[in-house]
Amino acid sequence: MQDINILQSQFKLIIEAFDMISDGILITDNKNKILVVNKGIERITGFSASEVIGKNPKTISSGWHDRNFYQTMWKSISQKGMWQGEIHDRRKNGEIYISFLSIYAVKDEHGNITNYIGIYNDITEQYVAHKTIKKLTHTDNLTNLPNRHSLTNYLSNAISVANQNNLKLGLLLFDMDNFKKINDSVGHKIGDLLLIQVVEKIKPKTEKTGIMARLEADMFAIVFERLKEIENIVYFSQQMLSIFEQPFIIDNQEFYLSASIGMCLFPDDAKTAEEMIQYADIAMNRAKDLGKNRFELYTQAQSDRIKNNIFIENNLRKAIQNNQLAIYYQPLVDIQSGKITGCEALLRWYQPEIGFTPPDLFIPIAEESGLIGSIEEWVLRKTARQMKQWKERGYNILMSVNISNDRFSMNNFVEETLDIIQSEQTKCEWFELELTERIIMDHKEVIDKLNNLKQLGFQLALDDFGTGYSSLAYLKRFNIDKLKIDKSFIQDLPDDAQSRDIVRAVVSLADSLNMSSIAEGVETKGQLDFLAALDCKAYQGYYFSKPVPADEFEKRLQSSRIKI
Asked: Could you tell me the pLDDT band of residue 390, with boundaries at 50, 70 and 90?
């Protein structure tokens, strides 16, 4: 009798736990008839248990997905015993919601399917926030054109296709000559209306070439895919200039505009999206220097660029051997308390005869040449030794270290990282690893690696958030601790409306995912005050301190008084 009471008590406990789970859980028989649901299903769908038990899960289906979607789902369940993915369903009140659904097949001892278990994680709120961020970060508010981030991604994809098919690409950049005078004389409202008219006149002519994007202010870009002859882009430029021969009319007032145009070709001039934008910009500025209202082709010899890269790479190899590399530390500051809670380790290269070489100049070359692996190993060892000293002196801070795509992709990345930490007699809990969106989207094994790092005690931060294309469902599964807001979204705060919207959306998304938000590149009190009002957790930037050597950073620690 006592055993029965114990079993009844345990069964009651299991039922209570089943209903307390926030995710919705639905169990069917092998004919897909619902047998039992938990309270989570009732909360998410609005249907009571009595309304769905005995019915097919199609009861909550939205009709959003086509037959191929469900065929793929059931094929996975049949072959692998499970399926996971985002799905749109309908609540009782007719509202569409989005959930991350996991379906598992349950089999008996003979391998026959007896039941199916569905677990619903409602991600509607985060999904909507993520879509908002995606639109804000990849679309220009004024013209609704793709922005610089979108253009870079589009160009990168176009270059990949061109590489595979031996095709040419063209990029045309143009901006209005002396447009600032118009804004200053008649106001930005009229200036914005003029830019919209420019887009309305030029964009229809780009439909067969590629896309048109707005890079900034009065600067625009046009991509030419599958470019057959250079004459095609030259002819288009001539047509564009003829458009500006006619006046633009706003409120019955005529405005005469002109444009300077620069062009760059792939693969003749550039190999990457960033290079194409850079070289087209050089050509555009050359057009301005030569009198404006004209176009110029980029003509710098490609061999010059290659020679310069080789020169930097050779010097970098010598720098590694001659200990010319150094680590500077930029404080991470808690916004509410104003105290230093950690630092980001940043690589610096000083050459006696040249001075400091900018990181964004030599780090890409280090990645291309394969030097980045040994450099990052050196950085981790040196920061580990530094952290050991600071911990011994009583400073309770977190060390943030950047991880490149190449290093993270190593099969033994986790093991090698742990070995360095242990060999320097430090702890994983003292470190935060900064990853980019590109890293987490590029690797199939990323979830296992991140879970292993988390189990070891490392904190994880997603760097430059908002500049890539993270899937929300995967972002939730990656077990990230912090989202670092890219400085490109901070620099125009608090005056720029689009920047305000983007930062507000990212902070809100981080809060909804139980992540901390960190703002990069804070340089003014106005930026900091705006972030504080949003309850952004931390920041770094020149407003508090530029990156400094270890001894200077320690002085800031002493004044900050962050002690164990």
From this structure: very high
334 by DSSP, 3-state: which? strand
Alpha helices in 37-120 (DSSP H): 39-45, 49-52, 67-80
- Spatial strand order of the sheet with 219-224 comes to 212-216, 219-224, 169-176, 259-266, 295-297
User: How far apart are the C-alpha atoms of 295 and 298, rounded to whole Å?
Assistant: 10
| Closest to 94 (Cα-Cα) out of 125, 123, 62 | 62
Distances 494 to 465, 523, 525 between C-alpha atoms, Å: 19, 11, 10
* 44, two tokens: 């998410």
Look at the pTM and tell me if it is higher than 0.90: no
Interval 184-196: pLDDT, tens: 889 999 999 999 9
Please state, in angstroms and rounded to a whole number, the distance separating the CA atoms of residues 540 and 519: 6
Spatial separation of the C-alpha atoms in residues 173 and 295, rounded to whole Å = 9
Contacts of 458 (CB under 8 A, 6+ apart): 417, 428, 429, 431, 432, 433
Q: CA torsion 37→95→134→537, rounded to 10°? A: -60
How far CA 309 is from CA of 301, 320, 408, in Å, comes to 13, 16, 24
Q: What counts of helices (H) and strands (E) characterise the chain?
A: 22, 21
Q: What angle do CA 9, 12, 18 make, to 5 degrees?
A: 145
What is the DSSP-derived secondary structure letter of residue 224?
A: E
